[in-house]
Amino acid sequence: MSCQAHFYDRRASAYARKFLFDEAIECHSAACQELEKSYKLTSNSKAVESIKLQHEYHKKQKDFLRLKKLQYHTYKEALRVQKEAMSRIMKARGARENESENDSQGATLKKAIFRTIEEADSLLELLVQRDDEDGSSVKQENCLSNKETSNVSSGSKRPKDDTTVIEELKIVNYQLRYVLTVGFLDII
């Protein structure tokens, strides 16, 4: 009998992963019924205690799944409301003039680019600090010896070391800043 309860438990878990909460609750109820049958047929005190604990577990799982079902439906409803709100906002934006829309989008884009540049600068600073702390040992590890260079095929590319990556990131950030300050995005 207990084997059937385990079967229903595994099935309930599979249903719960697929957000089929009603089916999972039914499986836990069936597991409870199977355990009740086993309880009536068993006289061993340890087995009775185990069956009681399993029965309590399945009852708690049913309550838990009811709560999860409610949360899931609330979540789906919130998503639906959010989608509707976003579609209304997008329709309202579409009603505005293109010029004012482009100005606000350009400003938002400009802010996003500056924020990205600031993040890249902070990452660069961390890399530079790490490179300074490591000193020459990092440079020695990244350089290939003459023996290794001779073993590399002529078509392969040597991997970039940290200092090269840092310099390239600095150049890209400088170019982005220049484009933004010159006013290229004001055209958008």
TrEMBL record:
Residues 5-65 form the Nuclear receptor-binding factor 2 MIT domain. Gene3D superfamilies: Phosphotransferase system, lactose/cellobiose-type IIA subunit. Residues 137-156 have a biased composition (Polar residues). Residues 137-160 are annotated as: Disordered. It comes from the Eukaryota. Transmembrane segments: none annotated. InterPro entries: NRBF2 (IPR039679), NRBF2_MIT (IPR033393). This is Nuclear receptor-binding factor 2 MIT domain-containing protein.
